[in-house]
Design a protein that fits this description.
Elements (H helix, E strand, L loop, with lengths): L3 E4 L4 H4 L4 E10 L7 E2 L3 E8 L1 E6 L4 E6 L2 E5 L4 E6 L3 E9 L2 H7 L9 E3 L4 H13 L5 H14 L8 H8 L6 H7 L4 H12 L3 H19 L4 H7 L5 H12 L3 H8 L1 H6 L2
Antiparallel strand pairs: 1-2, 2-9, 3-8, 4-7, 4-9, 5-6, 5-8, 7-10
Helix pairs in contact: 3-4, 5-8, 8-11, 9-10
Length: 267
């Protein structure tokens, strides 16, 4: 595999996409320690072949690396490679304001710099696609490929706790009640939802209720009070205030502007 690299300088329009690629490449590392350094951006390094260690963090902790594995490198965090055999690797550099959201959602976790995958094929395909499209100078395709790679490399969900909670969200329960329904402690529920969604159980319940209310308002001819009760609120006035504050439109205004029937009738 010949070593090659392409570095990218995103323009203002590309930066407004929220996530942008700064470089990609493939290379081989021979056995032996590489110089230690800290990057000014995020990086993913896909170890296709080889074994060794990653030196990571201010305490210079060594993490075992056994291909296939992904190395996650973070801005300002010291790292160095310690291949015990030849490493064949692909890499990408990226940055952008979206990295803050990806961190809160658990995709970028500085405490887990090495990840392995039961089935590495989806990750390998996603990385191969990113390497290919990043040389086409198509910013949208490159960002899409980068997001796909991050999605493929995301940690597995915690037994679908967030999905199970969303299924219960329109029942008028407290957080304690939701936890009891799922057979969890409140602490376990909060930690599982945070790791999967980056938010709290209360926020997940609220957004699920609002999303359900939007669908009912847009697609069914129900009074606002009936919609409120369907999504767990006995007080239509409270529901209307909450919906308006979070959506920016009252339920009736959303129905006029957001429903399928309203859009069709406007043509």
């Amino acid at each position: 595999m010949p070593n090659w690299s392409t570095y990218l300088t995103p323009g203002q329009s590309e930066r407004q996409l929220g996530l942008f690629c700064l470089g990609v490449g493939e290379q081989e590392n021979r056995p032996g320690a590489t110089p230690e350094r800290a990057l000014g951006c995020h990086a993913l390094v896909w170890i296709k072949e080889g074994r060794g260690h990653l030196l990571h963090g201010p305490d210079r902790q060594l993490f075992e690396v056994q291909a296939p594995a992904m190395l996650w490198l973070y801005p300002g965090v010291l790292h160095g490679y310690r291949p015990a055999t030849r490493w064949r690797q692909a890499w990408t550099l990226f940055s952008g304001p979206a990295t803050a959201a990806l961190t809160s959602l658990g995709h970028l976790d500085v405490t887990e710099p090495v990840r392995r995958y039961t089935d590495p094929r989806p990750v390998d395909r996603a990385f191969t696609r990113l390497l290919r499209v990043s040389t086409t100078h198509n910013a949208v395709q490159t960002v899409a490929a980068l997001y796909d790679l991050l999605a493929q490399t995301a940690p597995p969900p915690d037994d679908d706790v967030a999905a199970q909670l969303a299924g219960l969200a329109c029942r008028p329960l407290s957080v304690d009640g939701y936890a009891a329904e799922l057979g969890l402690s409140v602490k376990q529920l909060r930690e599982a939802v945070r790791r999967t969604t980056g938010s709290t159980p209360q926020e997940l319940v609220l957004t699920t209720r609002l999303n359900t209310a939007k669908a009912l308002l847009a697609e069914e001819d129900l009074p606002v009070g009936a919609v409120a009760r369907r999504v767990g609120y006995d007080d239509p006035a409270y529901f209307t205030r909450l919906f308006t504050a979070r959506v920016g439109l009252s339920p009736r205004a959303f129905r006029r502007s957001g429903s399928i029937s309203a859009r069709i009738s406007s043509f």
